[in-house]
User: What shape does this take?
Amino acid sequence: MSSQPNRLAKGGMIDRSKLVRFTFDGEPLTGFQGDTLASALLANGMSLVGRSFKYHRPRGILTAGSEEPNALVELRSGARREPNTRATTIELYDGLAAASQNCWPSLRLDLLAANQIFSPIFGAGFYYKTFMWPAAFWEKLYEPAIRRAAGLGRAAEAPDPDHYEKTNAFCDVLVIGGGPAGLSAALAATRSGARVILCEEDFRLGGRLLAERYEIDGRPATDWVEAAEAELESLANCRILRRTTVQGVYDGGTYAAIERVNDHVAKPPAHEPRQRLWRIVAKRAVLAAGAIERPIVFGNNDRPGVMLAGAVRAYVNRYGVTPGRRAVIFADNDDAFRTAEDLAQAGVTVAALIDARKSASPRAQAAAETAQARYLSGATIQQVRGGHGVRGIVVGDASGNTERFACDLVAVSGGWNPTVNLTTHLNGKPQWSDALSALVPGTLPPRMSVAGAASGSFGLGAFLAEGHDAGLAAAAECGFTAKVRGTPAVADDAGATPSPLWQVANSRGKAFVDFQNDVTVSDVKLAAREGFRIPEHLKRYTTLGMATDQGKTSNANGAAVLANVTGRYVGAVGTTTFRPPYTPIAISAFAGHHRGQDFRPARLAPSHAWAEEQGAVFVETGPWLRALYYPKRGEEPQDAVNREVANVRKAVGVCDVSTLGKIDVQGRDAGTFLDRVYANTFSALPVGKARYGLMLREDGFVLDDGTTARLAEDHYFMTTTTANAVKVMQHLEFAQQCLWPELDVELVSVTEQWAQYAVAGPRARDVLQAVVDPAYDLSNAAFPYLACGDVTVCGGTPGRLYRLSFSGELAYEVAVPARYGDSLVRAIMQAGAAYGIAPYGTEALGVLRIEKGHPAGGELNGQTTAHDLGFGKMLSAKKDFIGRFMAGRPALTDPERPSLVGLRPLDRGERIRAGAHLIPKDAEAVAGNDLGYVTSIAFSPSLNHWLGLGLLVRGPERHGEILRAYDPVRGGDVLVEVRPPCFIDPEGERLRV
Amino acid sequence: MSDRHLRPLSALAGVASPGRFGKTSGEPGVTIQERSGLGLATVAARRGQAAALKQAVANGYGVELPDSSRVAHGSTVSFIGYGPGQWLAVSETLGNHTLARDLAERLKGLASISDQSGGRTVLRISGPRAGDVLAKGLPIDLDPRGFPLGSAATSTISLMGVQLWQTGDPQSYDIAIFRSVSQSFWRWLTASAAEYGYEVTPS
Assistant: This one.
């Protein structure tokens, strides 16, 4: 086991009493609680952690935060394996297993590094140029080869075993970022009495205060952080969300955040989610997202050991780790040269401070003195030496002299970029600041303010003061104006970089602008030569700024290099658009609870459990699960359906029709209302009667059909098809509320209230007589076809009975409150046993209606008119109704329109296919000969052959004609005879007995 | 036929059984109880009868119909406003369909009544973490500042329509869901409550 050779003897916010064991590429290593994977790898002297995306160059750790472009690893294994996870954000836990990616056969010996030799052909846009043709090669050859060579990590192949969830939160003030400005804002707003949510991406509050040796009120700044945290924790009106990244800003003060609830353990504790997606609605927000340091572009600036100066300080001060033994610092700002002091304090040798600025800086000189290091101003690193790690640098000065330094760590800083990302999510445009040489927030999202480094101000005093003021103002805008304390005193240490060095001219070796996408200065030059001169185009052509880090460390340098090669002012080049999410989000977090059987809610009929007991096979009908058929043991599906149909025709069957939409239409004007929404008349329907109704859309096409019963003078009960229930309700509510608000009509959905069963077949009355209480006379004379009314069943349970038939047989529908549905269907089955009752499902229901020629889903397809379906006579000429006028349009009354017919195969042994096109018997199968198509088909056990319904040009005139039903998709080509749609009992005698 | 009286069946039968579930240490964060046998009915004011309806409800049930998304608890019937001129009436004493009958008699000509006693599952969700559990699905603010006692809401949870009202205890909510989605709702509810530990009490 390794002894953590680069762990400093003391210091850092790690718990040295808690040793944590982990593995990297199978090698057992140790770290301490409080480490990230990155800090623990560095403690173990492992600076090489991955290979780059395109050239497979060795890469190390560049940053100490979520902006990391290089140190991407595969975390965990098996079903929990996560590719492309940033080592800098992974909290170390006992048993953690991580692996490097993009290398084969091993990290140190990666054969695909040969790509570097061919780098001239892997330049910008090489995909577009190299693999253009032959086109057929793309899918089979090029793309798989590129994906194998260039792919980042491997996704898990098994379903994610953890659960994820979403949650909602509301507050007055959302504070984004828990650094000095954010803590200060949260304290001010919370003390004012506002409801505050503070989101911090890190597992620890403090931001840069954890990485620096600042003092507040004469004490270490971390003391102030702890006091602030304790105070916020103690106040009920503040909620602190750690490990939570605010990912996006949306309309109405809505923010999305991901909380990594249990990413820091091997496996979430029982019952706890892995991650939580927060939807936060805030009246005001204070963005205190800080800033991200920029690298400088120079030769071999991607070698492991080249690290941002701020990250070096974070590893030294926060984690008690030195990323190297002999350091140089290369920067253009005083802030970065403080790194020398921190390294010296930790006992690390600092060889030199390379200051890109022409005139020497007293502050940097002082740091060099403290560190007993050389100080070179007006100098730059021309090249980094070393392969798998930094071995030294070549420094050049203004007069062309070069000097070599041996070192294994290069701390780099080109200044800081305010983290403006969230300010742009609602189309805000960041602005270029000449004072900072960086983009600062421009127009902000409504009700958001920015404080601290994110706003472009630098210096601890400014951070605390700005945060305080922003928190106070945000709370005041929400109506909280309590007087609160001011901010503590600090010595300011300015960090701005007024004239940055973006790239070292004439440096040697590949100079990387975007580490993650392997975009070099030459790629940017090439893109510019080829006309891609604005950042959005540059991004698409070179991939600069894409992938997991979205250019957090590369966009600014990319724009600057582009400005340089196109001879423009950097502030005029512009930027790409930042969009949510701020950091990558697991798809599972978006899914939350909605996966597997919970993808969407399922609606279960009241007798679902009974149907399961009967062995029903279910089908999704919209959100409903309906019994498709009830196979007996060993029975084939088709045989089950045939049996169920035959049973209805010969004896009696029961079918659950509870899923039909049901709407109570009540009020003095209910009849008038129905006359206006239905094509036929309902106001004249007597109480105690039901009628088939046809509803049109405003545009004249058929919307839906169903039966509506009149239960009282001012009470109708409407049914809709299962599929259109919601649509019809919306249509009626629109008519009620917007078209005729003067009518007294009240609508309420009672779909869920009633369990309803169709009992159909010659013995239906016998069964119902045993179920409905004897006080009710069910004789044909007393309760004829289309009668309806209140009844009681099984000894007093209130219910309703309707004499309706979809099957064409003697049939009833009986309804009870849904809680009695299960019990009622069992009672019906028991009562029907003597008559040979069997349940039938939606498949048999379909066969029965096709035999009867009733249009349903295949025909009520939103493109058919009443005339098309043979319902032309139902369009009342005596009243106005929705759709009447538009149904009279020439195109909708054209006699050439396809209309409903029945079809049967000429050779009765043949099968007709739904979707087959109808063409003249001897005509060629071309679109010009198309006369219509088959809308529904069924095998009719009653007739012992296949039959179909179809929509056919001049259909009713063609009864008796022989046509070809041509189905090129499934190879069907059969001759069919055109018939009237109704094949069984066309006079309708059976249902009236 | 009187030997075959129909028996009511909860939509959660076989799914929601009493006991302690989820995290087992400490007090349960949430208690869940199905309120079965309730009378439930929708009340929709007839056109032009709003004032007369209010008076009739005040006379008949001793409670003032709320004008917004609020609940008014009477001694026998609670009324929850869910739309202009629309209320859900809930009663323990007038159970099942008897509530709709009672309303239809007392409010004849003033309101349209529809029995909904079979169409809803009503769950009482209470306990110190009730708000945290509901927040995982309910996109509305339950903080007392935004949802004071007596508040009610019509909203969605996990893609399912819900009606929610306060029972009178700040940590206790009644939620009415459509009967058909009860099991899907239960799966969401128990998954969301598990981390706090939950107790299912007999209805």
Chain B has four helices and twelve strands. Residues 50-61 of chain B form the longest helix (12 residues). Chain B touches chain A through 62 residues (CB under 8 Å). The first strand of chain B starts at residue 19 and ends at 21.
